[in-house]
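Quick note —
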Amino acid sequence: MFYARSFALFIALAVLSGSGLVGQDPKKDEKKTEAPKKLDKADEPGTKAKGVLPANWKRLGLSDAQVQDVYKVQGKYNSEIDKLEAKIKEIKAARDKDLKALLTPDQKKRLEDIQTGKDK
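Predicted structure written out below.
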């Protein structure tokens, strides 16, 4: 039984370490990309937009112009997405507040104890 546990632990560590992963593309001397910048900076002459291509898009053989266009589109939509995600977070907080208002003081205390792990 001890050997089975040791073997399972070894396999789990090997999988989680990533050293045994097969199928990873070899690292190339490519410039590391940063998070997309605002669209207005990317449109300045002589300035390249920076970003991250979607998964597997490097393998499509995109031209430099196409890559820049991808970064510009991402910049355009990322700012809008960020605003919507902030709004979603705000709505969820309001929902949670309204839900907690339905509870009695004893239920609120019990919920807090459960969430902090004090209730066992």
